[in-house]
Amino acid sequence: MEYIEEGSLMVFNEHSKLLGKGFALSHPPSIMQALEGNLPFCWQSNERSFLKDFIACNPGTSGGRIARWLQPDSYLDPSQCELVYNKEDLRCSWPALLTVNTKDQYGNLVQVSNLKVEVKAIPVDQGIMGDDSKKMRRLSRPDNSNMTFGGHPPPCLDVPYEPTIKDKKDIFHAICMMKPYENYSFEELRVAAPAVPRPSENMLVRSNNDGTYLVNWTPGSVGLYSIHVTIDGFDTGEVYKVDVKDPPQGITPPSQTEKKPHHTNKLRKFVQKYSSGLRARTNPSLQSEQIGVIPPEGIIAFVDEIHNDDGVWLRLSQESIREHCTNGHIEGWVLQYNQHLGKTLLVPVEEPKSIAKEIIKETIRRNLKAEATKHRRGPGVYQVIKCGSFGHNIRCGAGLKSTPVGMFTLEDKVLAIADVSSKQKLLFYREIFVMEN
């Protein structure tokens, strides 16, 4: 007993501030409870609830608020994370890009290494379809008053399909011609067969190493989905409801990795002067990883162009990737027009003229000049070899609208002392004399 008293005194001396108010008891203990050490602690007190909320950092409680105030450092908060997507891009059998933004308790992007992000699309009508199938089975129970199938028992759906041969010559491929189903119509068999539930779809998630994660999803069916995002096993709290629609007819699915044949390099220049550079990224998305920088007045060559919500993206050529990007990347994209800012970042650059093109143009120019010189003979004697029935007009000026002052007849000889070329590409004579035959 002395040792117990000494130990109690030591504990009380060290923790007198905590034990000064006594224990939180629901009622005074009895003698037997005090001797056995079974104290009636009050488990439902406000102080105990506060401690639980403080330790668990529960949001919306006084304990959780003071715990967050005592811990101001940034940490990943799953409830603040969000999923960004475009509803118009969600089409059946069309690849779509979604983005998961991981944020801290203040709503800022935060990068955490070795983070496990999972995104799953669950069809909304799975539970409804399951209830319908149960109701179907209840309605399909054999009953004398059941007229669901015309008084016949529900069809057995385990019979394997096989063509039906009649009179050893006619082959029927219809399922209602089979012997087990000859008393049922197509519609009755369709009602009896439970609808196949749509499976859940797991998405491919890739980290951009900047607090964002790129999610690839190709919806397998049309209808409503609920998208669940888990981060290290914790739900983000918000379930996203999306509606996947049929793709428009006559339009091929968008493919951002499609390679066009016979690419031709084109040049663009980064014209923003007061800038640290234009970022080159792995994919045509502002959330993708940065792999390089195009300096101001820098020139790049591109081989492909696509349009999305961010603006106009250009795919860099291999030479530009080697010049402006880090090693090890085989694909790079830059933003030519920023849709969010309404700015054009890259402008066309005139390609230098090649020597071969200059030689060809000079040759054509010389040939045209020689051809024009050949037809322009200058002053001399000419003879009329072709004219109309009334002759050939002599006009007062070098133009078809000038007033006629005379006329030539066939085989007349003319002495010309000068020639003038007009817009009509015709040859006229300033002073003309008609000679006798």
UniProtKB/TrEMBL annotation:
Entry-linked Gene3D superfamilies: 1.10.10.2360, Immunoglobulins
Filamin repeats: 188-244
Cellular component terms (Gene Ontology): nucleus; plasma membrane
Keywords, alphabetical: Acyltransferase, Transferase
Molecular function (Gene Ontology), one example: ubiquitin protein ligase activity
Highest taxon of the lineage: Eukaryota
EC number(s) reported in the record: 2.3.2.27
GO biological process: axon guidance; regulation of synaptic assembly at neuromuscular junction
Major enzyme class: transferase
InterPro entries found in the cross-reference section: Filamin/ABP280_repeat-like (IPR017868), Ig-like_fold (IPR013783), Ig_E-set (IPR014756)
Name the UniProt record assigns to this protein: E3 ubiquitin-protein ligase MYCBP2
